[in-house]
Amino acid sequence: MQLPFEELSQAIIAEAFARRNTVFTLFVVISLSFLVVGSVWPKKFLSSVIIHVNSENILTPLMRGAAETTRPTNHVSNAQEIIFGDLIMLQVIKKAGWLKTNPSEVEIETIKKDILEHVKITGYGANLIRIEYDDEKPMRAYITVKTMADLFIHEGENSKIEESTAAYDFIEKQVNEYLEKLTDVEEKLKKFRSENPDSRSDAEREVSARVNNLQAEIESTKLELREEQIKLESLKKQLSGEAAITISQSREGQYRRKISNLQSELETLRLDYKDTYPEIVRIKYQIEDLKKSLIEEIERRERAKLNAKNAGETYIDESIVLNPLYQQLRSRASSSETQIATLRARVSEMKRMLSEEFNRTRRIHNSAATLSKLTRNYEVNQEIYQDLLRRRENARVSKSLDEEQKGSIFLIQEPAKIPLLPTSIRFIHFAIAGIILGLIIPFSLIYILLNFDPRVRFSKIITKEMNLPVLAEINHISNNNERKSIKVNLVFLVLGVFMIFVIYGYVSWLKYSGQL
Amino acid sequence: MSKIEDALNKAKSRQISIPDKNVDSTAKELVKTNLTGIDTIQHKSSASEIGLMEHGDLLETTELSNMKIISSKMHDNTVANTYRDLRTKLIQKCQGKNFVAMLTSTVDGYSSCFTTVNLATAFAFDESKTSLIIDSNISSPQFEHCLEHRYEFGLTDYLENDDISAQDVIQPTGIQRLKAIPAGQPREVAHEYFTSLRMRSLVSDLIGRYSDRYIFINSAPISESADSRILCELCDFVILVVPYGTSSQNKINEAVESIGADKFAGIVFTEVPRVPSLSKKNKN
User: Fold this and answer.
1) Distance from CA of A466 to the nearest CA of B (A)
2) Domain ranges of chain A
3) CA distances from residue A117 to A2, A96, A120, A121, A135 in whole angstroms, order as listed
4) By C-alpha distance, which of B46, B42, B54 is closest to B30?
5) How many of the other CB atoms lie within 10 Å of CB of A404?
6) What DSSP string describes A320-334?
7) With left for phi above 0 and alpha for psi between -120 and 50, is residue A54 left, alpha or beta?
8) How far is residue B86's CA from residue B269's CA, in Å, rounded to a whole number?
9) Top-tier CATH class for A203-372
10) Inter-chain Cβ pairs, chain A and chain B, closer than 8 A
11) Tens digit of pLDDT for each residue in A282-337?
């Protein structure tokens, strides 16, 4: 049943008064226990530092493509990794003064664990890291946080520099390696070229031109040879028997022509002179002689011919041989023969040259394969080498960027401070809570009692819930003795409360004067 | 029987010492009552009887207050006023006629006894009324504790001994116009006292004798005592005393059922705690 507040509060007060000793005892117990707890509660001083991590610094866009900036992906876990590492932790322990008592290894481990439990690393947004540490001593909290932040930044920057230096060194090594390779290939190429002069790029063209030339020349030489042979043949024919006949016949003809010439001269002379004329007589004689020589000539020729026929050779008249023309023919024939021999030698020489050229072509093809292999090798190496060279320059810039800390990523946004006030629940909180709870708890218990105790405490319950008439509600009657004892009791209670406050005051004074 | 006779003699010797001034004042009041008391014709006139009532030594307000009994002069009269209101309610309920009321509690203890005494006292405030309280807790008599007086004999003596008259067991309480019949000597063996005719005739005799006498019977918790349920029959109505924070609703319902709807008059919720005002001094 829901009772109006006024009624309920009155009931609570009346009940509390009836149970004042219990209420007071509870108050004393609660407030004093809070006081005790508050006075021994360890103080907690929190110091924190906020570090701004610049992952996208101003240089990044400027240097994009040219230099890679090293960047941590997750700052918080990164920071945890670095800070919680032994390297930093041991220095922190040393600097914060934990080692004054010369702790053993195991104790140091415990201290480390203890510190780790009190360190909190949180990330704010994308770039802020907050390192918190709480300790009983404000100075130690401050030193711990400061050391952690400093070492973290130092480590972070060092690791960045290390990273970029390592990258640079690696690329440098690669560059050197490729340089060596390149030099090697170059050397090989050079050697190959010197060993294979045909390996020039225009050699093949040259060779083919030369082959063409040679072939053309061979053709023309062959033609010339043929011509010369024909010429020789005809010369030989001329020099043969038939030719001698022709020649001898032509000697007969000479005779005849001389006879006819003398005849005609005789005729002419006869016209003017008588036959007795000397001149005519001489001519007649001459003719006679000539006719005789002509017959002789024919006879001799027939004889020679017969002899030649018998001997099976061309008969050449001596007169013919001695003939200048014949001589001329013979010299021509012999010169023609010489010419033929020369031409033949030329052709065969040119053929040799041609075959040599063909061989050369074959050689050129072979060496071209090797050359292209070497060249390809060289080109690839060169390409990589140049790329690496460019990269090395980028790495060099990155390295010097990191070294100069221009692209610095760590900035202390909020430096560590020496905490002046403890962050944990302080003595005053306990003291106030003690008094307040000392009051609230007993009254709450009474409230609970009133609400949950099945025994009837309100006449309204009888009238409203049970529908029974209540004739009267009679207050407790207290007599003089009771009143007296209440008075005495109250005096004691007031004194008790006063004592509590005195104790509170005293403990607070001790606490704030630093004696506790 | 010598013990009883001794007690009777002792009581008589106490009755003799009635101060005269009391007789005078009651005589005057009796005249007033006579003038106004029209409805008391069929009964014996109580005026003279009341005037002659023996009160023994009257108790001082301080003493009463220490005994937690109300008085018209007590320093904090809220409780007295509550009882006065209750008195008015009961008189209205009975339309002015006198009655026999039984008070029983849901729990053991003296709460019903104190309520009985105080309610009777409230009736006795009125000079035209007298009240009689009867203690029916035979196994553990309560009046001696509440009235801080040792009674030598009482109800059980009367019921067991035909020689003792009702007048012999009615004893003074030290409160004006309030008499008491104590339970008498505690009896180990339970007799069927209240079913006896003698008990029945006692009650009817007591109520019938004076029209302005109100009888209040303090009985043991009704749900635990068969005697109390028997006594219900003899009463006009029953008032259930429920002390603060002692009884669950079930217990109250149980008690109400035991009383029966026709006799049940209502509940008096007592012992409600409050912060006493300590500054006020007793008027005495």
Assistant:
1) 8
2) 5-41+425-512, 45-170+401-414, 203-372
3) 49, 16, 8, 11, 11
4) B46
5) 10
6) HHT-HHHHHHHHHHH
7) beta
8) 11
9) mainly alpha
10) 115
11) 888 888 888 888 888 788 778 877 887 777 666 565 556 666 777 888 888 888 88
Q: A120 Cβ partners below 8 Å, 6+ apart? A: A130, A131, A132, A133
> Tokens representing B236?
């006009």
By the 10 Å C-beta count (0-12 exposed, 13-18 middle, 19+ buried), B273 is classed as buried
For B251, which residue in chain A has the nearest alpha carbon? A455
CB A245 within 8 A of CB A392: no
Closest CA to A249 of A312, A305, A288, A287: A305
Fold category of A45-170+401-414 in CATH: Alpha-Beta Plaits (3.30.70)
Q: Which of residues 246-265 of B touch A (CB under 8 A)?
A: 246-250, 252-253, 256, 265
Residue owning tokens 């017969």: A306
CATH number belonging to the domain at B58-270, selected among 1.10.10.10, 3.40.50.300, 3.40.50.720, 3.40.47.10: 3.40.50.300
* Residue B1 in tokens: 């029987």
Determine whether the interchain pair B268/A470 forms a contact, defined as Cβ–Cβ distance below 8 Å.
Answer: yes
3-class secondary-structure state, position B225: coil
Q: Measured between CB atoms, does A486 come within 8 Å of chain B?
A: yes
Q: What is the pTM of this model?
A: 0.55
Q: Where are the alpha helices (DSSP H) in A312-426?
A: 318-321, 324-404
How confident is residue B172, by pLDDT bands cut at 50, 70 and 90?
Answer: confident
Residues A446-489 have pLDDT tens digits of: 999 888 888 888 888 888 888 888 888 888 887 778 888 888 99
Task: Look up residue A465 and give its DSSP letter.
Answer: I
Burial class, A357, CB count within 10 angstroms (exposed 0-12 / middle 13-18 / buried 19+): buried
Packed helices A241-270 and A203-239: angle between N→C axes, nearest 10 degrees = 50
Q: Are A183 and A128 within 8 A, CB to CB?
A: no
Residue B237, SS3 per DSSP: strand
Cβ-Cβ contacts under 8 Å, A481 against chain B: 66
